């Protein structure tokens, strides 16, 4: 596989022409988030014919709203979930190796304000090192007061006793999703965003395909497949209900959504190369302050959410909680006026039963089920383990005779599109730049407008590249997911939107949804 793929694989008109020619494929994946994209990569790399359909943009939902951490899950270790931690630590190493332009190691410092905290948490983190084994990124260290303050400039030093430093990773989630989409396309998968599945097809009582609709033209397409996988994250129950209705049945919901709020402030509040970790906040959660793309992400919460809004609101108490907790650990306490962007992700937590209360106690592991009709549903899990989840889904399909015999998975050593081969890695602390494109950076810079910067790290050439080769269709696609400026600074994104819309129109995208994006910027502001 070469890193530079054919433009025919991502040009909208060519994609829809190809969709219209599809008669029968091995696998249809519904959902273009981390899980669905991972399945498409694994299946196509094994030689299966694959179509993936996404109702909105790739990673539009939960998969672009992570805390940007590639981690084994320190708090899962505290809960005694050793198997989940061990798998995640192994997958962390795989991701860092296969996408070094999008993921990198990150040091975390846990400051101690009580004498017992350093040895207590340090022992647990030493166990984390032991579980990582050869996949470890660095040894846990005990820090004296001075060393802890030097590692975390901007931390509150009053009462500081010391700290513990350990290693995990961080990444750019939405750009990783695009890399997965293009990697699957490079292996001959057909992926189409803005093309929701509106119906399931059946043959002799078994799921045999789908009907989908291009959201731009409203044209419908009928596709047949040996196997259909529902990988729509927090929305899996909608597809399950569609399937059950056809069979005259009802289904109990699998997912109990929980929302995590993230608040972004300027780097001045924590001008560090390391992240700050608070192991236990007032509500029992972990609080992070993570340096990312020139800003600092503060979060996150874990609040039950009864609805499934595409753009969920942060509850006022969640924002206040994050700011008040951050004020306990930062020398300069951030206020609402300092917030550059607020964004919310919905977690697809798997119900143990129909009676669910505290979402912090629900499973973070993924679950795979199939209905009487053969519809396969996967939900739960997290970004770090997307590749292992994909393997599990395909093994489930084979074990239950929904797919035939498959070649072994090759994704453990499959470098994603753009992954550099020269050993270079990405600095995810700095402002975004062309390094996000890895081995394709020269290609991006060869396009018209490479010298014209719209926002720091975003050039006109990058917008053109996103339209031509990265499936972008709207201003939001560009400023929220191909670049990450909406997540970094809603005001600056609003200022840049008109120029981005102009370039989209120059590239032949007639409906770039500028007005919708301007309204969305207001949504991301801390009002």
Description of the structure:
The structure is a single chain. This protein has 527 residues and is α+β, with helices and mostly antiparallel strands. Among the domains are: 7-62 and 175-254 and 354-413, FAD/NAD(P)-binding domain (3-Layer(bba) Sandwich), CATH 3.50.50.60; 434-524, no CATH class. It has 16 helices and 20 strands. Strands 3, 4, 5, 6, 11, 12, 13, 14, 15 and 16 form a ten-stranded mixed β-sheet that branches. Strands 1, 2, 7, 8, 9, 10, 17 and 18 form an eight-stranded mixed β-sheet that branches. A two-stranded antiparallel ribbon has the order 19-20. Strand 13 and strand 14 form a beta hairpin. 53% of the residues are buried.
Shape label: globular
- Kindly, what is the distance between the CA atoms of the first and last residues, rounded to a whole number of angstroms? 47 Å
Calculate the mean pLDDT score and round it: 92
What composes the largest sheet? 10 strands, mixed
Radius of gyration: 22 Å
Oligomer: single chain
Strand composition percent: 15-25%
CATH topology of the domain at 7-62 and 175-254 and 354-413: FAD/NAD(P)-binding domain
What is the CATH H-level superfamily of the domain at 7-62 and 175-254 and 354-413?
Answer: FAD/NAD(P)-binding domain
Give the CATH architecture of the domain at 7-62 and 175-254 and 354-413: 3-Layer(bba) Sandwich
CATH class of the domain at 7-62 and 175-254 and 354-413: Alpha Beta
Could you give the count of β-strands?
A: 20
| Structural class estimated from helices and strands | alpha+beta
Helix content: 25-40%
Uncertain stretches of 5 or more adjacent residues: 1-8, 354-363
Can you count the helices?
A: 16
